[in-house]
Write a structure and sequence with these properties.
Layout lengths: L1 E6 L7 H10 L2 E7 L3 H13 L4 E5 L3 H5 L6 H11 L5 E10 L7 H18 L3 E6 L2 H14 L8 E3 L6 H9 L2 E5 L9 H9 L5 E3 L21 H12 L3 H16 L4
Parallel strand pairs: 1-2, 2-3, 3-4, 4-5, 5-6, 6-7, 7-8
Helix pairs in contact: 4-5, 5-6, 8-9, 9-10
Bound molecules: zinc ion (ZN).
Length: 263
């Protein structure tokens, strides 16, 4: 039985259909990850309506900064804070840095990330972190988070949709970040990512779909959904030389530990 530690919902999505296909494919729980007003509200709705099946995370992601909406970081942080007490909220996320499309907004992205890291620290909540073409800045901000962190070591958070190499994975694990692999690990040209996937220690390994993006082989080109999570697990089992059942057992236990998911 799997936990999809990172998927997105939008208002109006066919949650019932997606859920029943997920359950049919062995997914026992999903973490609906926020990042915008609409993703936050869809995640909160799913977690309050189906608490056994969904947990939620809430935040404002780097798109808010990229589109010029991060002018008032303290106000955005207060809006996140107001959502944290809703039922089923297990983390602050997703937050992070993405310099692929708009490196010129790096300062705004860092300010927004920094404000939400501080909020997570204050509340002892793990963070769900995105990083693309921003590895050095992401690592330095997460190291600062680690230095200031006063809560359970393993609750610092997760680097989702990991696409780095084995060295980067090692550095993240050293500061207490789980490493979550998405469908990208199944892509034909992802050899160096598979090398990293082979060496992440069991106790720091997670899996996700990042629905609706990044459908794994053999579903590439289609909208992704949690039912495809087993393809990620199969690929990890293959590169790590273990059974899919072992991957399920390890990653589900890790997801429960990180997010304090019960049941
Ligand atoms: Zn995401």
């Amino acid at each position: 039985m799997f936990v999809d530690t990172h998927m997105h919902l939008e208002p109006g999505d066919d949650v019932a259909g997606l859920s029943s296909r997920a359950i049919g494919a062995g997914v026992q729980h999903m973490v609906a990850v926020g990042g915008s007003d609409t993703m936050n509200s869809a995640a909160l709705a799913a977690a309050s309506e189906q608490p056994k099946l969904f947990s939620a995370t809430v935040a404002f992601d780097r798109h808010v900064a990229e589109t010029g909406g991060a002018g008032d970081v303290p106000a955005l942080v207060e809006r996140v804070r107001a959502m944290l007490d809703a039922p089923g909220v297990v983390a602050v996320g997703e937050i992070g840095l993405d310099y692929h499309y708009s490196p010129e907004t790096a300062n705004e992205q860092q300010a927004l990330l920094g404000g939400q890291l501080e909020l997570a620290r204050e509340r002892g909540l793990p963070v769900v972190v995105h990083s693309r073409e921003a590895e050095a800045d992401t690592l330095s901000m997460l190291r600062a988070q680690r230095r200031a962190w006063q809560h359970e070591y393993e609750r610092l958070g997760v680097l989702h949709c990991f696409t780095g190499n084995a060295d980067m994975a090692k550095e993240l694990v050293a500061i207490g970040l789980f490493i979550s692999f998405s469908g990208i690990v199944t892509f034909r040209n992802a050899d160096s990512l598979r090398e990293a996937a082979a060496v992440v220690p069991d106790e720091w390994l997670l899996i996700e779909t990042d629905t609706p993006y990044l459908a794994p082989v053999p579903h590439r080109g289609k909208p992704n959904e949690p039912a495809y999570l087993s393809e990620v697990a199969k690929c990890l089992a293959d590169v790590r030389g273990v059974s899919v059942e072992q991957i399920a057992e390890v990653t589900t236990a890790n997801a429960k530990r990180l997010f304090h998911i019960h049941g």
